[in-house]
Each structure stands twice: as C-alpha cells, then as structure tokens.
Automatic annotation (TrEMBL):
Domain Strictosidine synthase conserved region: 158-246
This protein's UniProt keywords: Glycoprotein, Membrane, Signal, Transmembrane, Transmembrane helix, Vacuole
PANTHER family: PROTEIN STRICTOSIDINE SYNTHASE-LIKE 8, STRICTOSIDINE SYNTHASE-RELATED
Alphabetical list of InterPro entries matching this protein: 6-blade_b-propeller_TolB-like, Strictosidine_synth_cons-reg
Name this protein carries in UniProt: Strictosidine synthase conserved region domain-containing protein
Signal sequence coordinates: none
Subcellular location: Vacuole
Entry's transmembrane regions: 7-26
Taxonomic lineage of the native organism: Eukaryota, Viridiplantae, Streptophyta, Embryophyta, Tracheophyta
Length: 376
C-alpha cells in the first residue's frame, strides 16, 4: 500500500470511529457526575413564577423588601408578595418596543448582577451589553455609570459587590469580545481575557485589579472587605483577590467546585453561596482539555445545543456553600432531576433563614427554608 494511503486511511476513519463511540456511549459522555455528601432538598423549594425568563440575580433593598430581579427583556422587577406579585421597578434601556420576555434583544439590555448601595439606596446593575448602570430608589430608567476601563470597552459586565466603608464597587467584565448572549462562547473559546475592576464611587475612577481570567462570572466581597472572590466558570473554581492588607494585589485559588459556577453571594455570617450552572461530566472535561476542542464545539453546534449538553441533557439545580475563610465546601444542595430548580444562577441567603435561588434562563425564582437542609 502506498504510504499516502497508509496515512490517510486512519485519518479518514476517525470521524466514523468517533460517531460509533458517541452512538453507543452518548448518555455516559454527557451524564452529570453523582456527588458525595450532597443533600437532595432543592426539589422541596417553593416556586414563584415570573412573567419573563431569567431572574439571574436577586437583591433586597434597604427595607428588606424584594427580591428585585433582572429579566431577559431588560427590566428589573420587584416582588411585592402573593397579593401584588411582580411589579416593574426599573429598566436599563429606553428602547422597549421590540423587547422579548424569552429571548435577549441587545438593544433592550440584559440586567445581570444587582447590588444596592446601602447608603444612598441606589441600585447598581451589571448589564451584559451596556456596562455598569445605576438607578435611584424610585426606579425608572437606569443611567450609565461606566462602559470603558483602561481604553477597553466593558463588553460583559456580570456581577458586582459594594464595599460601603470605602465607597467602592467591584465588578467582573467577563469578556473583551462577547456579550451575555454568547456566554458559552466565552467559555469554549479558551481565551483568558476576563478582568475584575474596582470603581471608586466618589472619584468616579476605575482600575483593573485582576486580569487574564477565564470567564469570571460571579463576584462577592468578603465580610471584612479584605478580599473579593471571583468565580471562573470555565475553570470550575473561585479565585480570591486581596484588596487590603499585606497581601493586597495578589490572588490565589480560593475554592475548587464540582461544576461551572455562576454568581456568588455572601451569607449573613460571612460564608458564601455559589450557584452552579451545571455539574461536571465527561463532555465538559473533554471540552476543557484544550482551547481548540472548545473552539471546535463553537463552530460545530448551536448555543442551545451547548447548553443542553453541558447540563447532561437534563437541566438541574445545584448550589454550594463555601467557608468565608478557607473556601472549603460546607454544603451541597441539589435538585439533580430538575423537578423544580433549573439553571440555578444565584443563591441568596437572608437573615430570616430563607435561601432564594435565581435562574439564568427559567421564568421563576425559588425559596427554601434553611431549616430544611439543616435538619438533614
């Protein structure tokens, strides 16, 4: 056999071999991991439906009212209890004519992370298209705060947190290329271009305090304000960035997680809740082996397909509690079958013992009494 045929025959057979492997082992390839020491309690949540998709982040105001949530069509809604339900509070774009409650329209904006300034009552908003915005206590049309830092456009403002003692707002810019609508392309591209930005609310000055991050998604400030934690979805980990004290300016891995993290919130006692968009699987491990594999998937499949596969073909809910000091995993709560919670994006624990959970795609928020999992 000519050498060219000896070389080309195995190469030509590769797609066939891969197709056969996928046919027989597909379920095993995409199936999400089973976790040890997890509590299957999220299916016991109370579900509160919304009139639009994607309450990605939750926040409560100075009076403890809410939650407030940002949804797909660019609005921020406020929950006013069972009788009044959800009411409009604010929006990030004046262009409202073609906004969809189910699909993102860039001109309508996409509010993501929400943070109230406890001094002024202003709500700071990370919009996945426009940058950082804010709206006063009465709501209405939000105003632009920041859309560029160090000569680079803020393409994908994601989540932030406020140091009220220093009047500083920290937030993530997840990509220099993609907006929120292409979030999975940010993950699969393999490019480490995300950054964490510090914005002085008095001087109006901003500077980058960490860069070369791989899809920094959630961000939260520690209880004593000495560090911020940013969660890199593509690396299944959270990173601690020191902003005060002798370690200021340095960072290290804070926690390793059993899946892709979305938002992170500090608890009343100083620990952290991290919502995982999905658990690990053989498929996610393969896609993360090398950037060219991820880029191949970007070209070979639609966004909806990528989301489906990373969720093991079955949307599910999972949130993880981390020690506020060490990053150690303290609790894992699941709805592994997705009976109630799907595409969990944030878990927010309130002082009255409730755990509120948002979703990046589903039209609902969920509420769980912490006594449910404390007793198990």
């Amino acid at each position: 056999m000519p050498i060219s045929r000896r070389v080309l025959t195995p190469v030509a057979a590769t797609p066939v071999i891969l197709a056969v492997i996928c046919f027989f082992f597909w379920e095993s390839i995409i199936r999400s991991d089973n976790l040890k020491d997890t509590k299957h309690v999220l299916q016991d949540v109370k579900t509160i439906p919304l009139p639009a998709d994607g309450p990605e982040s939750l926040e409560f105001d100075l009076k403890g009212e809410g939650p407030y949530v940002g949804v797909t069509d660019g609005r921020i809604l406020k929950w006013q209890g069972e009788e009044l339900g959800w009411v409009d509070f604010a929006y990030t774009s004046p262009h409202r004519d073609n906004c969809s409650r189910h699909e993102v329209v860039p001109s309508c904006g996409r509010p993501l992370g929400l943070s109230f300034d406890r001094k002024t009552g202003d709500l700071y908003i990370c919009d996945g298209y426009f940058g950082v915005m804010k709206v006063g206590p009465e709501g209405g049309l939000a105003e632009l705060v920041l859309d560029e830092v160090d000569g680079r456009k803020i393409m994908f403002a994601n989540q932030g947190d406020i140091d009220e003692e220093e009047d500083v707002y920290y937030f993530n810019d997840s990509s220099d290329t993609y907006h929120f609508g292409e979030v999975f392309y940010v993950s699969m591209s393999g490019r480490k271009v995300g950054r964490v930005i510090k914005y002085d609310m008095k001087s109006k000055e901003a500077k980058v305090i960490a860069e070369n991050l791989h899809l920094p998604n959630g961000l939260a400030l520690s209880k004593n304000g000495s560090f911020v934690v940013t969660c890199e979805s593509s690396l299944n980990s959270c990173r601690r960035i020191w902003v005060k004290g002798p370690k200021s300016g340095t960072n290290e891995i804070f926690a390793s997680l059993p899946g892709a993290p979305d938002n992170i919130r500090r608890t009343p006692t100083g620990d952290f809740w991290v919502a995982l968009h999905s658990k690990n699987s053989l498929f996610t491990r393969i896609s993360q082996l090398h950037p060219w594999i991820g880029r191949f998937f970007m070209k070979a499949m639609k966004m909806e397909t990528a989301i489906h596969l990373t969720n093991g073909g079955k949307p599910h809910g999972i949130v993880v509690k981390l020690s506020g000091e060490t990053g150690e995993i303290l609790e894992i709560l699941e709805d592994s079958e997705g009976k109630a919670v799907k595409y969990a994006s944030e878990a927010y624990e309130t002082k009255d013992g409730k755990l509120w959970i948002g979703s990046v795609y589903w039209p609902a928020v969920w509420v769980l009494d912490t006594s449910v999992y404390d007793s198990k």
